[in-house]
């Protein structure tokens, strides 16, 4: 009986490791983002607090954030420095409505990076039809780091181009004021 239980536990652990997917860290980031935008009374969960930053993002992303955070965009109510952005990096905004129609899909894989595409509607609570129906698109570059999937970069997709949060952090870290 003990051997059966041990074998079952090993299979369960192996299956969990095998079932890990490149979309897992993206789904977690999107769940946090959805919670943040869905309630105005709750506490905002910051994606770059030490725990989620260290668990969900690659070491190069963490290092770039560390350098960029030396130049915060604002001061907080308690006098501590804020983050280097001053806006939500997933929605690329300071304002918005609860996210709707969130869809996460796995894209291509090139040179060890899996592109994960996320679409959502951010402006459903507004009266303007063109904004209400607009769809935001964000791409996450996900890589395997030490046997687990982590986010290496975030790209907001616009009509003409895409940007890079990683490049933005690196540029922000080198700016002089």
Structure, explained:
- Helices cover 36% and strands 23% of the residues.
- The protein is of the alpha+beta class and 177 residues long.
- The protein has one domain (23-173): Nuclear Transport Factor 2, Chain: A (Roll), CATH 3.10.450.
- Strands 1-2-3-4 form a 4-stranded antiparallel β-sheet.
- A hairpin with a 2-residue loop joins strand 3 and strand 4.
- Helix 4 (59-68) runs parallel beside helix 6 (165-174).
- The chain is globular, with a radius of gyration of 19 Å.
- The chain starts with a helix and ends with a helix.
- Residues 1-19 have low confidence and may be disordered.
Structural class: alpha+beta
- The amount of helix comes to 25-40%
**C-alpha end-to-end distance:** 68 Å
Mean pLDDT: 84
Over all CA atoms, what is the radius of gyration?
19 Å
Report the count of strand segments.
4
Tell me what the CATH architecture is. Answer: Roll
Widest sheet: strand ordering = 1-2-3-4
Give the uncertain stretches in residue-range form: 1-19
Number of helices: 6
């Amino acid at each position: 009986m003990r051997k059966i239980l041990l074998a079952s536990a090993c299979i369960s652990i192996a299956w969990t490791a095998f079932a890990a997917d490149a979309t897992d860290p993206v789904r977690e980031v999107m769940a946090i983002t959805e919670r943040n935008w869905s309630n105005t009374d709750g506490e905002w969960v910051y994606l770059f607090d030490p725990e989620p930053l260290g668990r969900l993002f690659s070491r190069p992303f963490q290092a770039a954030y560390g350098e960029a955070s030396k130049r915060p965009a604002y001061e907080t109510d308690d006098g501590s420095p804020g983050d280097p952005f001053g806006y939500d990096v997933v929605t690329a905004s300071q304002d918005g409505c609860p996210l709707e129609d969130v869809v996460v899909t796995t894209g291509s894989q090139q040179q060890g990076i899996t592109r994960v595409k996320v679409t959502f509607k951010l402006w459903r609570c507004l009266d303007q039809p063109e904004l209400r129906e607009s769809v935001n698109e964000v791409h996450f570059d996900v890589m395997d780091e030490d046997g687990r999937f982590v986010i290496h970069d975030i790209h907001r997709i616009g009509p003409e181009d895409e940007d890079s949060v990683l490049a933005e952090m690196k540029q922000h870290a080198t700016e002089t004021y």
